[in-house]
Design brief:
The strands form five sheets. The chain has a ten-stranded mixed β-sheet with strand order 9-7-5-2-10-1-11-15-19-20, sandwiched between helices. Helix content is 31%, strand content 20%. It has three domains: 158 residues, Adenylosuccinate Synthetase, Chain A, domain 1 (3-Layer(aba) Sandwich), CATH 3.40.440.10; 91 residues, Adenylosuccinate Synthetase, subunit A, domain 2 (Orthogonal Bundle), CATH 1.10.300; 159 residues, Adenylosuccinate Synthetase, Chain A, domain 3. Strand 19 and strand 20 form a beta hairpin. By secondary structure, it is of the alpha/beta class. Bound molecules: inosinic acid (IMP). Inosinic acid binds next to helix 4.
Length: 430
Protein backbone atom coordinates (compact mmCIF):
# COMPACT_ATOMS: atom_id res chain seq x y z
CA UNK A 1 0.00 0.00 0.00
CA UNK A 2 1.18 3.50 -0.86
CA UNK A 3 2.28 5.32 2.30
CA UNK A 4 2.50 9.07 2.26
CA UNK A 5 4.18 11.16 4.93
CA UNK A 6 3.19 14.47 6.44
CA UNK A 7 5.90 16.54 8.15
CA UNK A 8 4.73 19.43 10.31
CA UNK A 9 6.23 21.95 12.67
CA UNK A 10 5.34 21.10 16.27
CA UNK A 11 6.24 24.47 17.81
CA UNK A 12 6.35 28.12 16.65
CA UNK A 13 8.19 27.34 13.39
CA UNK A 14 11.94 27.11 12.75
CA UNK A 15 12.11 23.58 14.17
CA UNK A 16 14.48 22.36 11.47
CA UNK A 17 11.83 21.03 9.07
CA UNK A 18 13.94 21.99 6.06
CA UNK A 19 16.75 19.64 6.91
CA UNK A 20 14.41 16.80 7.92
CA UNK A 21 12.24 17.06 4.80
CA UNK A 22 15.33 17.22 2.65
CA UNK A 23 16.79 14.01 4.02
CA UNK A 24 13.45 12.12 4.00
CA UNK A 25 12.63 13.23 0.46
CA UNK A 26 15.19 10.75 -0.83
CA UNK A 27 12.49 8.08 -0.24
CA UNK A 28 9.57 9.95 -1.87
CA UNK A 29 8.53 10.69 -5.44
CA UNK A 30 6.70 13.98 -4.97
CA UNK A 31 6.98 16.75 -2.39
CA UNK A 32 4.16 19.20 -1.71
CA UNK A 33 3.93 22.62 -0.07
CA UNK A 34 0.34 23.56 0.65
CA UNK A 35 0.07 26.59 3.00
CA UNK A 36 1.83 29.83 3.80
CA UNK A 37 4.16 31.53 1.38
CA UNK A 38 7.54 33.18 1.37
CA UNK A 39 7.27 33.79 5.14
CA UNK A 40 8.86 30.32 5.41
CA UNK A 41 12.62 29.95 5.26
CA UNK A 42 13.66 26.31 5.01
CA UNK A 43 17.40 25.90 5.36
CA UNK A 44 19.25 22.87 4.05
CA UNK A 45 22.99 22.24 4.03
CA UNK A 46 24.21 19.74 1.46
CA UNK A 47 27.93 19.04 1.17
CA UNK A 48 28.73 22.31 2.94
CA UNK A 49 26.54 24.28 0.53
CA UNK A 50 23.63 26.22 2.05
CA UNK A 51 20.20 26.46 0.42
CA UNK A 52 17.34 28.55 1.85
CA UNK A 53 13.97 27.89 0.21
CA UNK A 54 11.00 30.15 0.80
CA UNK A 55 8.36 28.97 -1.67
CA UNK A 56 9.53 25.75 -3.26
CA UNK A 57 9.12 22.48 -1.39
CA UNK A 58 12.45 21.62 0.18
CA UNK A 59 12.39 18.11 -1.28
CA UNK A 60 12.95 19.62 -4.74
CA UNK A 61 16.69 19.61 -3.96
CA UNK A 62 16.60 15.86 -4.80
CA UNK A 63 16.71 15.55 -8.57
CA UNK A 64 14.25 12.63 -8.73
CA UNK A 65 11.34 14.43 -7.04
CA UNK A 66 8.38 16.30 -8.49
CA UNK A 67 7.62 19.48 -6.54
CA UNK A 68 4.09 20.78 -6.06
CA UNK A 69 3.10 24.31 -5.05
CA UNK A 70 -0.45 23.53 -4.00
CA UNK A 71 -3.53 25.73 -3.89
CA UNK A 72 -3.44 26.68 -0.20
CA UNK A 73 -0.24 28.69 -0.63
CA UNK A 74 -0.09 32.40 -1.31
CA UNK A 75 2.61 33.05 -3.85
CA UNK A 76 4.69 36.02 -4.87
CA UNK A 77 5.18 34.95 -8.50
CA UNK A 78 8.29 37.03 -9.06
CA UNK A 79 9.95 35.44 -6.03
CA UNK A 80 8.93 31.97 -7.15
CA UNK A 81 10.51 32.48 -10.57
CA UNK A 82 13.66 33.90 -8.91
CA UNK A 83 13.86 30.94 -6.56
CA UNK A 84 13.57 28.44 -9.41
CA UNK A 85 16.13 30.28 -11.52
CA UNK A 86 18.48 30.60 -8.55
CA UNK A 87 18.50 26.82 -8.20
CA UNK A 88 18.89 26.33 -11.95
CA UNK A 89 21.97 28.59 -11.85
CA UNK A 90 23.37 26.37 -9.10
CA UNK A 91 23.05 23.36 -11.42
CA UNK A 92 19.70 21.93 -10.30
CA UNK A 93 17.06 21.37 -12.93
CA UNK A 94 13.78 22.56 -11.45
CA UNK A 95 11.59 23.87 -14.27
CA UNK A 96 10.68 20.42 -15.60
CA UNK A 97 9.97 19.07 -12.09
CA UNK A 98 7.70 21.73 -10.65
CA UNK A 99 3.92 22.11 -10.87
CA UNK A 100 2.02 25.14 -9.59
CA UNK A 101 -1.67 24.94 -8.75
CA UNK A 102 -3.95 26.99 -10.94
CA UNK A 103 -5.89 27.88 -7.77
CA UNK A 104 -2.94 29.44 -5.92
CA UNK A 105 -3.57 33.00 -4.73
CA UNK A 106 -1.05 35.68 -5.52
CA UNK A 107 0.78 37.89 -3.06
CA UNK A 108 0.74 41.32 -4.66
CA UNK A 109 2.90 44.36 -3.80
CA UNK A 110 -0.14 46.05 -2.19
CA UNK A 111 -0.38 43.14 0.27
CA UNK A 112 3.14 43.94 1.46
CA UNK A 113 2.23 47.62 1.84
CA UNK A 114 -0.73 46.60 4.00
CA UNK A 115 1.37 44.15 6.01
CA UNK A 116 3.69 47.03 7.00
CA UNK A 117 0.81 49.38 7.81
CA UNK A 118 -1.05 46.81 9.92
CA UNK A 119 2.14 46.17 11.87
CA UNK A 120 2.19 49.78 12.98
CA UNK A 121 -1.05 49.33 14.89
CA UNK A 122 -1.14 46.16 16.98
CA UNK A 123 2.20 44.59 16.14
CA UNK A 124 2.23 40.84 15.46
CA UNK A 125 5.87 40.80 14.36
CA UNK A 126 5.11 39.41 10.89
CA UNK A 127 7.71 38.66 8.25
CA UNK A 128 6.30 41.58 6.18
CA UNK A 129 5.93 39.27 3.19
CA UNK A 130 2.28 40.21 2.65
CA UNK A 131 0.99 36.86 3.88
CA UNK A 132 -1.84 38.00 6.19
CA UNK A 133 -3.24 40.59 3.74
CA UNK A 134 -3.08 38.10 0.88
CA UNK A 135 -5.19 35.62 2.86
CA UNK A 136 -7.49 38.51 3.87
CA UNK A 137 -8.11 39.23 0.19
CA UNK A 138 -8.60 35.53 -0.52
CA UNK A 139 -11.26 35.11 2.17
CA UNK A 140 -12.72 38.53 1.40
CA UNK A 141 -13.14 37.30 -2.21
CA UNK A 142 -10.87 39.95 -3.65
CA UNK A 143 -7.90 37.70 -4.36
CA UNK A 144 -6.25 37.07 -7.71
CA UNK A 145 -5.42 33.47 -8.54
CA UNK A 146 -2.91 32.13 -11.00
CA UNK A 147 -5.76 30.85 -13.24
CA UNK A 148 -7.12 34.41 -13.44
CA UNK A 149 -3.97 35.55 -15.24
CA UNK A 150 -5.14 33.82 -18.44
CA UNK A 151 -7.70 36.59 -18.75
CA UNK A 152 -5.58 39.73 -18.98
CA UNK A 153 -8.49 42.20 -19.01
CA UNK A 154 -10.06 40.71 -15.93
CA UNK A 155 -6.71 40.60 -14.12
CA UNK A 156 -6.06 44.25 -14.91
CA UNK A 157 -9.52 45.20 -13.66
CA UNK A 158 -9.07 43.22 -10.43
CA UNK A 159 -5.66 44.75 -9.79
CA UNK A 160 -7.02 48.23 -10.43
CA UNK A 161 -9.91 47.75 -8.00
CA UNK A 162 -7.66 46.29 -5.34
CA UNK A 163 -5.08 49.01 -5.72
CA UNK A 164 -7.73 51.71 -5.41
CA UNK A 165 -9.08 50.03 -2.30
CA UNK A 166 -5.59 49.88 -0.77
CA UNK A 167 -4.95 53.50 -1.78
CA UNK A 168 -8.14 54.56 0.02
CA UNK A 169 -7.22 52.58 3.10
CA UNK A 170 -3.70 54.04 3.16
CA UNK A 171 -4.94 57.61 2.82
CA UNK A 172 -8.05 57.53 4.95
CA UNK A 173 -6.96 55.27 7.77
CA UNK A 174 -3.19 55.63 7.87
CA UNK A 175 -2.79 59.09 6.27
CA UNK A 176 -0.14 57.66 3.94
CA UNK A 177 0.50 57.37 0.24
CA UNK A 178 2.00 54.35 -1.41
CA UNK A 179 4.18 54.42 -4.48
CA UNK A 180 2.73 51.46 -6.35
CA UNK A 181 2.14 51.81 -10.05
CA UNK A 182 -0.70 49.74 -11.54
CA UNK A 183 0.79 49.29 -15.01
CA UNK A 184 4.20 48.35 -13.66
CA UNK A 185 2.65 45.84 -11.25
CA UNK A 186 0.52 44.36 -14.01
CA UNK A 187 3.43 44.04 -16.46
CA UNK A 188 5.69 42.41 -13.89
CA UNK A 189 3.02 39.93 -12.86
CA UNK A 190 2.32 38.97 -16.47
CA UNK A 191 6.05 38.65 -17.14
CA UNK A 192 6.44 36.21 -14.23
CA UNK A 193 3.33 34.36 -15.36
CA UNK A 194 4.85 33.92 -18.83
CA UNK A 195 7.80 32.10 -17.24
CA UNK A 196 5.66 29.83 -15.08
CA UNK A 197 2.59 29.31 -17.29
CA UNK A 198 3.67 25.95 -18.71
CA UNK A 199 3.99 24.55 -15.19
CA UNK A 200 0.50 25.55 -14.02
CA UNK A 201 -1.90 22.61 -13.61
CA UNK A 202 -4.78 21.41 -11.46
CA UNK A 203 -2.50 19.96 -8.78
CA UNK A 204 -5.40 18.31 -6.91
CA UNK A 205 -6.22 16.12 -9.90
CA UNK A 206 -2.55 15.56 -10.53
CA UNK A 207 -2.10 14.27 -6.97
CA UNK A 208 -5.24 12.12 -7.12
CA UNK A 209 -3.85 10.32 -10.17
CA UNK A 210 -0.27 10.09 -8.98
CA UNK A 211 0.80 6.62 -7.96
CA UNK A 212 4.14 7.46 -6.37
CA UNK A 213 4.72 8.26 -2.72
CA UNK A 214 4.15 11.80 -1.57
CA UNK A 215 5.67 13.87 1.21
CA UNK A 216 3.56 16.81 2.38
CA UNK A 217 5.69 19.58 3.78
CA UNK A 218 4.08 21.89 6.36
CA UNK A 219 5.48 25.37 6.87
CA UNK A 220 5.61 27.43 10.12
CA UNK A 221 4.37 25.39 13.09
CA UNK A 222 1.30 24.18 14.97
CA UNK A 223 1.51 26.96 17.56
CA UNK A 224 1.32 29.50 14.70
CA UNK A 225 -1.81 27.85 13.24
CA UNK A 226 -4.58 30.39 12.66
CA UNK A 227 -7.09 28.27 14.61
CA UNK A 228 -5.06 26.16 17.01
CA UNK A 229 -2.15 28.51 17.76
CA UNK A 230 -1.67 31.52 20.00
CA UNK A 231 -4.23 33.70 18.18
CA UNK A 232 -3.87 36.52 17.12
CA UNK A 233 -0.09 36.02 17.30
CA UNK A 234 -0.16 33.44 14.55
CA UNK A 235 0.29 33.20 10.81
CA UNK A 236 -2.77 33.44 8.57
CA UNK A 237 -2.99 29.81 7.46
CA UNK A 238 -3.58 26.42 9.05
CA UNK A 239 -0.01 25.43 9.77
CA UNK A 240 -1.15 22.30 11.65
CA UNK A 241 -2.54 19.14 10.03
CA UNK A 242 -5.83 21.02 9.73
CA UNK A 243 -4.43 22.76 6.66
CA UNK A 244 -3.76 19.62 4.63
CA UNK A 245 -7.11 19.13 2.99
CA UNK A 246 -7.96 22.72 2.16
CA UNK A 247 -4.32 23.37 1.23
CA UNK A 248 -4.16 20.57 -1.32
CA UNK A 249 -7.79 20.17 -2.36
CA UNK A 250 -7.50 16.49 -1.42
CA UNK A 251 -10.32 14.91 0.58
CA UNK A 252 -9.56 14.27 4.29
CA UNK A 253 -9.93 10.54 3.58
CA UNK A 254 -6.88 10.74 1.30
CA UNK A 255 -4.66 11.16 4.36
CA UNK A 256 -6.04 8.22 6.35
CA UNK A 257 -3.09 5.99 5.41
CA UNK A 258 -0.44 8.68 5.85
CA UNK A 259 2.04 8.95 8.69
CA UNK A 260 1.97 12.22 10.57
CA UNK A 261 5.22 13.35 12.11
CA UNK A 262 6.19 16.71 13.53
CA UNK A 263 9.57 18.28 14.09
CA UNK A 264 10.47 19.83 17.43
CA UNK A 265 13.64 21.36 18.76
CA UNK A 266 14.98 20.01 22.06
CA UNK A 267 14.14 23.49 23.44
CA UNK A 268 11.73 26.21 22.24
CA UNK A 269 12.03 29.34 20.09
CA UNK A 270 9.68 31.83 18.59
CA UNK A 271 10.04 34.96 16.42
CA UNK A 272 7.70 37.91 16.56
CA UNK A 273 5.32 38.86 19.33
CA UNK A 274 2.99 36.67 21.35
CA UNK A 275 2.86 34.42 24.40
CA UNK A 276 5.81 32.17 25.11
CA UNK A 277 5.48 30.74 28.63
CA UNK A 278 8.97 29.20 28.82
CA UNK A 279 10.84 32.18 27.36
CA UNK A 280 14.18 32.95 29.03
CA UNK A 281 15.30 36.54 28.85
CA UNK A 282 18.45 35.90 30.90
CA UNK A 283 21.93 34.50 30.21
CA UNK A 284 20.53 31.00 29.65
CA UNK A 285 18.23 32.31 26.90
CA UNK A 286 21.16 34.11 25.28
CA UNK A 287 23.27 30.97 25.45
CA UNK A 288 20.51 28.99 23.70
CA UNK A 289 20.35 31.64 20.99
CA UNK A 290 24.08 31.75 20.39
CA UNK A 291 24.67 27.99 20.55
CA UNK A 292 21.61 27.33 18.38
CA UNK A 293 22.34 30.12 15.85
CA UNK A 294 18.79 31.31 16.49
CA UNK A 295 18.39 34.06 13.91
CA UNK A 296 15.54 34.04 11.36
CA UNK A 297 16.25 32.53 7.91
CA UNK A 298 13.74 34.90 6.27
CA UNK A 299 14.17 38.12 8.25
CA UNK A 300 17.44 37.65 10.18
CA UNK A 301 15.62 38.59 13.41
CA UNK A 302 17.03 37.13 16.66
CA UNK A 303 14.68 34.43 17.91
CA UNK A 304 13.29 34.36 21.44
CA UNK A 305 14.53 31.23 23.23
CA UNK A 306 13.44 29.12 26.19
CA UNK A 307 13.20 25.63 27.64
CA UNK A 308 11.21 22.88 25.99
CA UNK A 309 7.48 23.37 26.56
CA UNK A 310 5.83 19.96 26.77
CA UNK A 311 2.37 21.45 27.36
CA UNK A 312 2.55 23.14 23.96
CA UNK A 313 4.11 20.06 22.40
CA UNK A 314 1.37 17.80 23.74
CA UNK A 315 -1.15 20.20 22.16
CA UNK A 316 0.65 19.63 18.83
CA UNK A 317 0.55 15.86 19.32
CA UNK A 318 -3.20 15.96 19.91
CA UNK A 319 -4.19 18.50 17.26
CA UNK A 320 -2.15 16.80 14.55
CA UNK A 321 -2.80 13.20 15.61
CA UNK A 322 0.94 12.65 15.52
CA UNK A 323 2.53 9.25 15.00
CA UNK A 324 5.98 10.46 15.93
CA UNK A 325 8.28 13.32 16.82
CA UNK A 326 11.55 14.18 15.18
CA UNK A 327 13.77 15.92 17.68
CA UNK A 328 16.36 18.41 16.43
CA UNK A 329 19.24 20.41 17.93
CA UNK A 330 19.78 18.26 21.02
CA UNK A 331 23.47 19.21 20.71
CA UNK A 332 22.60 22.85 21.50
CA UNK A 333 21.98 21.66 25.08
CA UNK A 334 25.40 19.94 25.33
CA UNK A 335 26.97 22.59 27.58
CA UNK A 336 24.17 23.23 30.05
CA UNK A 337 24.73 21.92 33.60
CA UNK A 338 20.99 21.91 34.27
CA UNK A 339 18.25 21.47 31.68
CA UNK A 340 14.58 22.14 32.37
CA UNK A 341 11.36 21.07 30.67
CA UNK A 342 7.94 22.56 31.28
CA UNK A 343 5.43 19.88 32.30
CA UNK A 344 2.46 22.11 33.26
CA UNK A 345 1.44 25.74 33.61
CA UNK A 346 0.31 27.33 36.82
CA UNK A 347 -1.61 30.50 37.59
CA UNK A 348 -2.74 31.48 41.08
CA UNK A 349 -2.67 27.89 42.31
CA UNK A 350 -4.57 26.61 39.24
CA UNK A 351 -2.65 24.01 37.24
CA UNK A 352 -3.06 23.70 33.47
CA UNK A 353 -1.97 20.49 31.84
CA UNK A 354 -3.44 21.34 28.46
CA UNK A 355 -2.76 24.39 26.34
CA UNK A 356 -5.19 27.26 27.12
CA UNK A 357 -6.83 29.17 24.27
CA UNK A 358 -7.06 32.57 25.98
CA UNK A 359 -4.39 35.17 25.47
CA UNK A 360 -4.95 36.66 28.91
CA UNK A 361 -4.44 33.28 30.59
CA UNK A 362 -1.42 32.53 28.44
CA UNK A 363 0.22 35.80 29.33
CA UNK A 364 -0.16 35.07 33.05
CA UNK A 365 0.71 31.39 33.38
CA UNK A 366 4.05 30.35 34.88
CA UNK A 367 5.78 27.19 33.74
CA UNK A 368 6.11 24.26 36.14
CA UNK A 369 9.51 22.74 35.43
CA UNK A 370 11.12 19.36 35.80
CA UNK A 371 14.91 19.56 36.03
CA UNK A 372 17.45 17.28 34.40
CA UNK A 373 21.17 17.02 34.94
CA UNK A 374 23.02 18.12 31.78
CA UNK A 375 25.35 15.71 29.99
CA UNK A 376 28.20 18.17 29.31
CA UNK A 377 29.45 16.09 26.38
CA UNK A 378 29.52 16.72 22.67
CA UNK A 379 26.63 14.97 20.88
CA UNK A 380 26.97 16.70 17.51
CA UNK A 381 26.99 14.20 14.67
CA UNK A 382 26.08 11.18 16.86
CA UNK A 383 24.94 8.27 14.67
CA UNK A 384 23.28 5.93 17.17
CA UNK A 385 21.73 5.94 20.67
CA UNK A 386 24.88 4.25 21.98
CA UNK A 387 26.83 7.43 21.15
CA UNK A 388 24.57 9.52 23.40
CA UNK A 389 25.41 10.14 27.08
CA UNK A 390 23.06 8.52 29.61
CA UNK A 391 21.58 11.90 30.68
CA UNK A 392 20.76 12.82 27.08
CA UNK A 393 18.97 9.49 26.61
CA UNK A 394 16.96 10.06 29.81
CA UNK A 395 15.96 13.49 28.51
CA UNK A 396 14.68 12.03 25.21
CA UNK A 397 12.96 9.14 27.03
CA UNK A 398 11.13 11.59 29.31
CA UNK A 399 9.88 13.59 26.32
CA UNK A 400 8.41 10.55 24.62
CA UNK A 401 6.89 9.20 27.84
CA UNK A 402 5.22 12.55 28.53
CA UNK A 403 3.91 12.92 24.96
CA UNK A 404 2.85 9.31 24.54
CA UNK A 405 4.32 9.12 21.02
CA UNK A 406 7.76 7.91 20.00
CA UNK A 407 10.67 10.15 19.17
CA UNK A 408 11.36 8.46 15.83
CA UNK A 409 14.46 10.32 14.78
CA UNK A 410 17.15 12.53 16.26
CA UNK A 411 18.79 15.14 14.07
CA UNK A 412 22.30 15.72 15.40
CA UNK A 413 23.60 18.55 13.24
CA UNK A 414 22.74 20.69 10.21
CA UNK A 415 24.27 18.42 7.52
CA UNK A 416 22.08 15.92 5.65
CA UNK A 417 23.91 12.91 7.16
CA UNK A 418 23.78 14.09 10.77
CA UNK A 419 20.83 12.09 12.12
CA UNK A 420 19.80 8.63 13.27
CA UNK A 421 16.58 6.63 13.68
CA UNK A 422 15.33 5.69 17.11
CA UNK A 423 12.67 3.37 15.70
CA UNK A 424 12.08 1.86 12.31
CA UNK A 425 9.64 4.08 10.37
CA UNK A 426 6.50 2.27 9.18
CA UNK A 427 6.76 3.59 5.64
CA UNK A 428 10.24 2.07 5.24
CA UNK A 429 8.58 -1.36 5.46
CA UNK A 430 6.19 -0.68 2.56
P1 LIG B 1 3.41 36.20 8.90
O1 LIG B 1 3.26 34.75 8.60
O2 LIG B 1 4.51 36.87 8.13
O3 LIG B 1 2.09 36.92 8.79
O4 LIG B 1 3.84 36.35 10.45
C1 LIG B 1 2.97 35.98 11.52
C2 LIG B 1 3.76 35.34 12.66
O5 LIG B 1 4.28 34.09 12.23
C3 LIG B 1 4.98 36.15 13.10
O6 LIG B 1 5.17 35.96 14.49
C4 LIG B 1 6.13 35.51 12.34
O7 LIG B 1 7.36 35.70 12.99
C5 LIG B 1 5.69 34.06 12.37
N1 LIG B 1 6.22 33.27 11.25
C6 LIG B 1 5.80 33.27 9.97
N2 LIG B 1 6.50 32.40 9.23
C7 LIG B 1 7.38 31.83 10.06
C8 LIG B 1 8.37 30.81 9.88
O8 LIG B 1 8.55 30.24 8.80
N3 LIG B 1 9.08 30.49 11.00
C9 LIG B 1 8.84 31.06 12.20
N4 LIG B 1 7.93 32.00 12.41
C10 LIG B 1 7.20 32.38 11.35
Amino acid sequence: MKKDLVILGAQWGDEGKGKVVDLLSAEFDAVVRYQGGSNAGHTVIVGGEKFVLHLLPTGILHQHTIGIVAQGMVVDLELLVDEIEGLEKRGLSVWERIFVSDRVHLVMPYHKVLDSLFERKGKIGTTLRGIGPSYMFKYGRKGIRVCDLEDKDRTYKLMKENLEFVQDLCEKVYCENHSLDLDDMFERTMESYKSIKERVVDTTRWLLKFEGRVLFEGAQGTMLDIDMGTYPYVTSSNASALGLSNGTGLPPKYFSQSDFWAVSKAYTTRVGEGPFPTELTDETGLMLRERGGEYGATTGRPRRCGWLDLVALKHAVEVNGLDGIILTKLDVLDQFKEIKVCVAYEEDGKVFESFPAGLTTLSKVKPVYKSFRGWLKDTRGAKSPSELPENALSYVQFIQDYLGVPVVMLSTGPEREEYFWLCQPAWKEV
